[in-house]
Design a protein that fits this description.
The chain is an alpha/beta fold and 286 residues long. It is built from eleven helices and twelve strands. It has one domain (2-285): Rossmann fold, CATH 3.40.50. The strands form three sheets. A seven-stranded parallel sheet has the order 3-2-1-4-5-6-10, with helices on both faces. A three-stranded mixed sheet has the order 7-8-12. The protein has a two-stranded antiparallel ribbon with strand order 9-11. Helix 2 (53-60) crosses helix 3 (83-98) and helix 7 packs parallel to helix 11. The longest helix is centred in the first third of the chain and has 16 residues, at 83-98. It is globular, with a radius of gyration of 18 Å. It binds NADP nicotinamide-adenine-dinucleotide phosphate.
């Protein structure tokens, strides 16, 4: 299959780009200048930006499918160009002209916390709106709603230098998933796609609170010694008043700590294959 990818250099885009190229798909990625080395060598690269219609057109030219692995940058504000708002609208306009048959989109489970317990955050509103825009569009879409990724411990938001930084109380266990398992599920979904909209809840096989998961990760991560540190949530909220990055951190922590995640992953397991990596195995393999 000829697939165009936006976000191939991201933490969660990389494993998907690797999997798609390993499976023999022809992958073309739009990559910002200086990021060329972050995609698999067999991937075709268009150096450019999602802000530019011409770069999008070049990336999707000759493709049948598009996969979107985008994010709200932690330092950005609602008024900035947002890849999942303006970017997706540009992609859709060009995708229609190109005759794209299916669009896969990495959404999330926790953004469903929007509106619960009076919680409201522009970034979740934007991400929920992106799902609605894709679902209403004439091109069929595959929406992936994953739980929390194991990658957060060594590459993502839990990691602060040599520490795993947690805040507040994580009330509900999360079904942590590894990027490698998710990537296999994305590849299977694109291969199986039958022409109508579909949504998959993507969850791993074990559920832990953030505190339980951090302990497992730290005790099995051999690459370096990491320490778990806890910041009182009120302090994170206070810092959040000072910078967009801390504000992002406070909102995501509040949502993750309070989102009552239930297991809804059976359909994805049956259709796309069951995840295999446990958190212990993931930590040992890094
Ligand atoms: N972390 C989790 O546990 C979790 C769980 C469920 C869902 N998710 C969702 O997963 C998504 C992706 O996360 P991630 O950690 O992979 O994000 P990320 O590392 O920030 O990746 C974002 C990607 O988008 C690209 N991008 C941003 N602006 C662009 C532009 N103007 N033009 C072209 N490319 C642009 C980035 O390119 P550069 O490399 O050039 O910056 C990067 O490749 C997020 O939306 C998140 O909500 C995450």
């Amino acid at each position: 299959m000829k697939i165009a990818m936006f976000g191939a250099t991201g933490m969660l885009g990389k494993p998907v780009a690797e999997r798609l190229t390993t499976e023999g798909h022809t992958l073309t990625a739009l990559v910002r200048p200086g990021k060329e080395k972050h995609v698999p060598p067999s991937c075709n690269i268009v150096v450019g930006d999602l802000k530019n219609r011409k770069d999008i057109r070049e990336t999707i030219s000759g493709c049948e499918a598009i996969y979107l692995s985008l994010s709200v940058a932690q330092s950005s504000t609602e008024r900035d160009f947002q890849p999942e708002r303006e970017g997706i609208l540009l992609v859709l306009e060009e995708a229609v002209k190109e005759g794209i048959q299916v669009i896969g989109y990495l959404s999330s489970l926790v953004q469903q916390y929007q509106g619960m317990n009076g919680f409201s955050w522009w970034a979740f509103r934007l991400k929920n709106q992106a799902v609605e825009t894709l679902k209403k569009h004439s091109i069929p879409c595959i929406i992936f709603r994953p739980s929390t990724f194991m990658e957060n411990f060594d590459q993502g938001s839990y990691r602060q230098g040599g520490n795993i930084a947690l805040s507040g109380t994580s009330k509900h266990p999360m079904y942590f998933i590894a990027g490698r398992d998710y990537a296999r599920m994305v590849a299977n979904a694109l291969a199986k796609y039958k022409g109508s909209n579909v949504e998959y809840t993507i969850q791993g096989t074990e559920a832990f609170t953030a505190d339980e998961a951090a302990k497992i990760f730290v005790s099995h991560y051999k690459k370096e010694k990491m320490k778990i540190v806890k910041l009182p949530f009120w302090m994170l909220r206070l810092f959040g008043k000072l910078t967009p990055t801390f504000n992002y951190g406070a909102n995501i922590v509040e949502a993750l700590n309070n989102y009552p995640e239930h297991f809804e992953g059976t359909n994805a397991w049956e259709q796309l294959g069951k995840p295999v990596l446990t958190l212990k195995e993931y930590a040992e393999s890094r």
